[in-house]
C-alpha cells in the first residue's frame, strides 16, 4: 500500500506583535487560540497556535511573534499563500467582514473557484475559499457565528525555486494526486477533508527572505508514531536530509528542506493540545514543557503580555 499524507497538519509563520496577531486571527478571523507556549528553541519568543475548537490537524496555524523584527519577502522556497476553507454561501459575509475591519480584499479566480485574497497585519498572504467538504467548525467568537466560521485549511500555494522537483515530491513521495493545471499553477489533492488541496506555481521563483509576514515551514500529517517512523525511513532512503525525531509536546516532528527550498515537516496527529490542559480551557495559560518550568518567572517576564479580546467593531 502506498504511503501518503492526509494533507496539511499545520503551517508556521513569522509575525510581529503577539497582540496584533491575536486580534487578527481570533478577533477578525474568529479562530480559537488553542495553545499559548514558547518556541522551545528560543524561549524568549512565544509560539502561538490558532485553529478550530480542538486545534485539529488541518486547522492549525502557528506563529513566532517578534516585535520589531525585520520584514520578510515572500518568494521561492516558501509557502506563498495560506488558504482557509469557509462554508458554502459565506463568501459575501467574509468579504464584508474583512472590509469592515479595514482589510484590503481582492477577489481572484483559480481552478474555477473564487477566492478572497488579502494579507494579515504582518503581511502574510491569506485566502478564503468556499468548500463543501470538511467538517464544520463549532467555534464562534466575536462577530463570527459557528455556521460561518472558518473550517480549517483549504490548502496552500507553494512557491518553489525548482517546481518540477517539488511537484515530483508531492506526487511520488507524499502520495498526492495531480488533478489539474491552469495557467501558472498545478493542483494536487490528497485524502484528508481539510488542508488537502495544494497548488504550486509551476514557474521557478527567486528565493524569498525570511522575516515577519512569511511562512517558516509547512507540516504534513502522519497518523501515528508508526507512520511517522516509516516516513523518516522512506525520506532518508530517498536521500533527503531528515532530522531526528523531535518532541513538540503536542505532536512529534521531523524536518527536511525539499529541493525547491521549502522547509517541510511531518508531524503526528496525536497527542493533541488537550494533553496538558482541559479542552475547555485551551490557550488560557502559558504552557511550558517540563524542562522550562523552573524558569517560568523569567520567561514570563520577557514575553509581551496580550489577550484574546472581542474587537471594538464587534462591540458596536
From TrEMBL:
CDD domains: PcpA_C_like. Keywords: Dioxygenase, Oxidoreductase. The keyword Metal-binding does not apply. Pfam families: Glyoxalase. InterPro entries: Extradiol_RC_dioxygenase, Glyas_Bleomycin-R_OHBP_Dase, Glyas_Fos-R_dOase_dom, VOC_core. It comes from the Bacteria. Residues 7-131, 152-269 form the VOC domain. SUPFAM superfamilies: Glyoxalase/Bleomycin resistance protein/Dihydroxybiphenyl dioxygenase. GO terms for molecular function: dioxygenase activity. This is Ring-cleaving dioxygenase. It comes from Paenibacillus haidiansis. The lineage of its organism: Bacteria, Bacillati, Bacillota, Bacilli, Bacillales.
Amino acid at each position: 500500500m502506498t504511503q501518503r499524507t492526509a494533507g496539511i497538519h499545520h503551517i508556521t509563520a513569522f509575525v510581529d506583535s503577539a497582540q496584533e496577531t491575536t486580534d487578527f486571527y481570533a478577533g477578525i478571523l474568529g479562530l480559537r487560540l488553542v495553545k499559548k507556549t514558547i518556541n522551545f528553541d528560543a524561549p524568549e519568543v512565544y509560539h502561538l497556535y490558532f485553529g478550530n475548537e480542538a486545534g485539529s490537524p488541518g486547522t492549525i496555524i502557528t506563529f513566532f511573534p517578534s516585535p520589531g523584527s525585520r520584514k520578510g519577502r515572500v518568494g521561492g522556497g516558501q509557502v506563498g499563500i495560506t488558504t482557509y476553507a469557509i462554508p458554502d454561501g459565506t463568501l459575501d459575509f467574509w468579504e464584508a467582514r474583512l472590509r469592515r475591519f479595514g482589510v484590503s480584499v481582492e477577489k481572484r479566480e483559480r481552478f474555477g473557484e473564487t477566492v478572497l485574497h488579502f494579507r494579515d497585519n504582518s503581511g502574510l498572504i491569506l485566502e478564503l475559499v468556499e468548500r463543501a467538504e470538511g467538517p464544520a467548525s463549532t467555534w464562534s467568537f466575536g462577530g463570527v457565528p459557528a455556521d460561518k466560521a472558518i473550517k480549517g485549511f483549504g490548502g496552500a500555494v507553494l512557491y518553489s525555486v525548482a517546481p518540477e522537483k517539488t511537484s515530483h515530491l508531492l506526487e511520488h513521495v507524499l502520495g498526492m494526486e495531480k488533478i489539474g493545471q491552469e495557467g501558472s499553477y498545478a493542483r494536487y489533492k490528497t485524502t484528508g477533508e481539510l488542508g488537502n488541496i495544494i497548488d504550486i506555481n509551476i514557474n521557478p521563483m527567486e528565493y524569498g527572505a525570511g522575516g515577519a509576514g512569511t511562512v517558516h515551514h509547512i507540516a504534513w500529517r502522519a497518523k501515528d508514531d508508526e507512520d511517522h517512523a516509516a516516513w523518516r525511513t522512506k525520506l532518508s532512503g530517498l536521500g533527503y536530509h531528515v532530522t531526528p525525531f523531535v518532541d513538540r509536546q503536542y505532536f512529534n516532528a521531523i524536518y527536511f528542506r525539499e529541493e525547491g527550498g521549502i522547509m517541510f515537516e511531518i508531524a503526528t496527529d496525536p497527542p493533541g493540545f488537550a494533553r496538558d490542559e482541559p479542552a475547555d480551557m485551551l490557550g488560557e495559560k502559558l504552557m511550558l514543557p517540563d524542562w522550562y518550568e523552573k524558569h517560568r518567572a523569567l520567561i514570563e517576564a520577557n514575553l509581551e503580555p496580550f489577550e484574546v479580546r472581542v474587537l471594538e467593531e464587534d462591540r458596536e
